TrEMBL record:
Signal peptide boundaries: 1-21
InterPro entries found in the cross-reference section: AmpC-like, Beta-lactam-related, Beta-lactam/transpept-like
Hydrolase keyword on record: yes
Native source species: Nonomuraea thailandensis
Protein name as catalogued: D-alanyl-D-alanine carboxypeptidase
């Protein structure tokens, strides 16, 4: 499921599997991006990534680099135009549609969930009359993340995933899974706990307000206006359209020699509004850049998108507990991330069974990077660390990546 990240999971791929990928020659590095190319190579040779790409856009133009392969079986190289599953980088697509509807006066972020989905959110301390659309979009609703439900996670991790990879989930079913668990904190707005359930509800509200599908609204409001060529929200189809790399996973296995599975074909209905979108590096650049520059939203809604909250909760004893990625703040679908050298980048990102994807950059979008690694690995040298290391190779001055504020 999208963005369900346990803290202790195996991550190593066998040396036999990696041999071809690790020795594949890297793409030529343009001047000024040699550290980034080296970081991509280390993600493959040292980190166990089958393949990783990064595309940079700055004042010098566009640069694309890759390491490893798109297909471990054939050795096919990765290409700039490839499509891949972007996991929770789908959330800003949903958030943008919601904010556009707010700008058109068709809803308000202060509307309660009950106004649009009466009686749906209840039980286990949840009250749809007290939770607003804003709470859904900035993860302050307190509604449990369905991706962390123990029963469902048992079906969608390990060998059981292979039996359930094509299961179809309706949005209503995903919400019910989340609501059968206790809330993350008592009062909406009093904390931040990442919740895919909130974004499923936001997608349902879009469809209720417009009378059209979320996929259609994303196409009409974002994909066509920005000229995105490889971005779409799948329905029940399980294959990625057009050219794409294979996606790989250890299915959350903890053993150092965990088997790697090809997970490319899978149901996107487990993510939908929270994590179901397919895109490309170039499209992520264009979309994230448009968000940062305010090209998709009216001024009031642009301010809403970048009204940031700290990603954690205050404990009963007054101490602070991070509940997401350390060094981040979150808006509505977008987030900021302080790198270890103190540089702050802004943008979008996500994980899904089969990979991690990001599009991050300076707040003015003049220096951007989009990355994709085609494996989801957790604990130790994991896919999140790989992605951060690649970003730091681009944004942190040489030799400063270990300094923190």
């Amino acid at each position: 499921m999208a963005t369900s990240i346990p803290s202790t999971v195996g991550l190593l791929i066998t040396a036999m599997t990696l041999a071809g990928a690790a020795t594949a020659p890297p793409a030529a590095a343009a001047p000024g991006h040699a550290p980034l190319q080296r970081a991509l190579g280390r993600a493959v040779a040292d980190g166990g990534a089958p393949g990783m790409v990064a595309e940079v856009r700055d004042r010098r133009g566009r640069w694309f680099g890759s390491a490893g392969v798109a297909d471990l079986r054939t050795g096919r190289k990765r290409q700039p135009q490839e499509r891949f599953r972007i996991g929770s980088a789908a959330k800003p697509f949903t958030a943008t549609v919601v904010l556009q509807l707010a700008g058109e006066g068709k809803l308000s972020l202060d509307d309660t969930v009950d106004k649009w989905l009466p009686g749906l959110v209840k039980g286990n301390g949840n009250d749809g009359g007290a939770i607003t659309i804003r709470h859904l979009l900035n993860h302050t609703s307190g509604i449990f993340n369905y991706g962390n439900d123990q029963e469902e996670f048992a079906k969608l991790s390990g060998p059981a995933w292979l039996e359930h990879r094509y299961d179809v989930y309706t949005p209503e079913r995903l919400v019910r899974i989340g609501l059968r668990n206790p809330r993350s904190f008592e009062t909406p707005g009093d904390g931040f706990v990442y919740s895919n359930t909130g974004y499923i509800l936001a997608g349902m509200i879009v469809e209720k307000v417009t009378g059209r599908t979320l996929a259609g609204e994303i196409e009409r409001r974002i994909v066509r206006p920005l000229g995105l060529t490889g971005t779409y929200l799948p329905g029940r189809e399980t294959r990625i359209r057009g050219p794409h790399p294979r996606h790989y996973s250890t299915l959350f296995a903890a053993e150092p020699d965990a088997k790697v599975y090809d997970v490319t074909d899978q149901s996107a209905t487990t993510g939908w509004a929270a994590g179901g979108v397919v895109s490309t590096a170039g499209d992520l650049h264009r979309f994230a850049g448009a968000l940062l520059r305010g090209r998709l939203l009216r001024p009031a809604q642009q301010r809403e998108m970048f009204t940031m909250v700290k990603t954690g909760i205050k404990m009963p004893d007054g101490t602070w507990k991070d509940t997401w990625i350390t060094g981040t703040t979150y808006g509505t679908g977008v987030f900021s991330w302080e790198l270890s050298c103190g540089v702050q980048v802004w943008g979008i990102g996500g994980a899904i069974t089969g990979g991690f994807s990001f599009a991050m950059g300076t707040r003015d979008a003049k220096h951007m990077i989009a990355t994709n690694v085609t494996i989801d690995r957790y604990a130790g040298y994991n896919s999140l660390d790989m992605s951060k290391t690649v970003m730091e190779a681009e944004f942190c001055p040489s030799g400063s990546r270990t300094r923190s504020k």
